[in-house]
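A student in our group prepared the protein record below, which I am reviewing. Here is the record exactly as it was handed to me.
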Amino acid sequence: MTKPEYAVKVEQVHKSFGANEVLKGISFSARQGDVLAIIGASGSGKSTLLRCINHLVVPDEGRIYIGNEVLLSRKRRDGVAVSSDPRQLERVRAKLGMVFQNFNLWTHRTVLQNVIEGPVHVQHIAKHEAIDHALTLLAKVGLSDKQHAYPAELSGGQQQRVAIARALAMNPEVLLFDEPTSALDPEMVGEVLRVIRTLADEGRSMILVTHEMKFAREVSDQTIFLHEGIVEESGVPEALFDNPVSDRLRQFLQPMC
């Protein structure tokens, strides 16, 4: 099979919750190895868009390509959107690693147990192999000494770094970050951003929803600005941040000036 040009491609995605149309025909693409940053005000649809990519929120309309596969949805008789092919969805989700705002770690399991859970029980990797890989990943995120700790014993920044290691343990083709620093105290933000920057430098395909504007400018290959459910502006970060065309984007970036 030919290697796809795009890691993720989104075509005309719509999503409504009741009468509230959150996404109004979103389209964009991220090439293999690119970091795409999604910025915008609260309520602009950023997190909903990210969740539509792996169908945690199923779009009402549109196509989402993950590599060579396209995810489609359909409407049930009650009007609820569901995945057209649940088996395909399960397969495609294995290619995506998701890092949430609030860590979502198993509180009753140690750091090491959290990281090996997916590889052992979902991918059926031998436990000793999963442990070896997990220890390598914990070293990558700077938490080798915390493998036997429980989440409650860690700072927020440490918990988020465990969550990143857990996502990496599944060997995903694309990493999705949903405002990974929004729940952190300011002094802990930097340690998480350093890990994400390292992953970007390794050439990993990533889509990053963030409110860290300076970081988005520095780390992304492409940035899109969402406003009220549409792509108001997109482009390389140097152009988008330094010479915004949209009045709305200029207003959004004003605090940086």
Notes: Residues 111 and 162 are 7 Å apart (CA to CA). The chain has a mean pLDDT of 94. The chain is about 35% helix and 25% strand. The first helix runs from residue 46 to 53.
